[in-house]
Fold this sequence. Notes:
Layout: E1 7-12, H1 15-25, E2 38-42, E3 47-52, H2 53-60, E4 74-77, H3 81-93, E5 97-104, E6 110-115, E7 121-126
Parallel strand pairs: 1-3, 4-7
Antiparallel strand pairs: 2-3, 5-6, 6-7
Domain VOC: 4-127
GO molecular function, one term: lactoylglutathione lyase activity
Protein name: Lactoylglutathione lyase
Amino acid sequence: MEPRISFVTLGVRDFERARRFYRDGLGWPLSSGSNDEVAFFRTGGAILALWSRELLAADANVSSEGSGFPGFALAHNVPNKEDVDAVLARAAAAGATILKPGSDAVWGGYTGYFADPDGFPWEVAWNPHFPLGPDGAVQLPG
């Protein structure tokens, strides 16, 4: 199997609220492939999709019940340390909850976390060891 993540689909409780948060609040362009039930956002590689939590759970044949930490965090890396606080501020203005303000990380970078309106945690990180390439992709060492 080739190592690739093509889509990350978030099962959201309020589709319209989630679409507004990402499109209007964060300013992410909505794909014309979106419709009244699913939203697609290109993220410099993988696609972020928003879909009803109940429909996504039914599609995966699992229960839609549950709350708390989902066991993962999404990440948005930025090219400069100062950008972390700017992205956290924009997310908060759009309705996100700041989980952890920007702070120096033990591994030498700068990071903070916000939760989107459905509670999905997003890390915003500047990592001097893994810079962003010209296409915005994180450059991992070989």
